[in-house]
């Protein structure tokens, strides 16, 4: 049960972090002169790459939890 909880947590970290970082970089590049361009570029990034980021985050979190690669998902022998 603990692995499932940490898997969900890692999925959220990967998804939100990657989406935020990608939108931030694209927005900073496009919005150098006009903030309205930054908003449009951030939305376009989310629309174009959001599904791929979602799926890759899900795959990484599930595989990392299943194989105990991610912190918090390791089996502990007591």
Question: Can you put this structure into words, describing what you see?
Answer:
By secondary structure, the chain is mostly helical. The chain has one domain (2-66). The chain is built from 2 helices and no strands. It has helices at 2-30, 35-66. Helix 1 (2-30) packs antiparallel against helix 2. The longest helix has 32 residues, at 35-66. The radius of gyration is 16 Å and the shape is elongated.
Based on DSSP secondary structure assignment, what is the total number of beta strands?
0
Using the alpha-carbon principal axes, give the shape: elongated
Mind describing the biggest β-sheet?
A: none
Distance between the termini: 17 Å
Which regions have little confidence, pLDDT < 50, spanning 5+ residues?
none
Strand residue percentage? under 5%
Mean residue pLDDT: 91
Helix content: over 70%
Radius of gyration: 16 Å
Count of helical regions? 2
The secondary-structure class comes to mainly alpha
Number of domains in the coordinates? 1
SSE run: HH
Could you give the topology of this structure?
Layout: H1 2-30, H2 35-66
In short:
With 78 residues, the protein is mostly helical. The protein is 78% helix and 0% strand.
Name the features.
single chain, 78 residues, mainly alpha, 78% helix, elongated
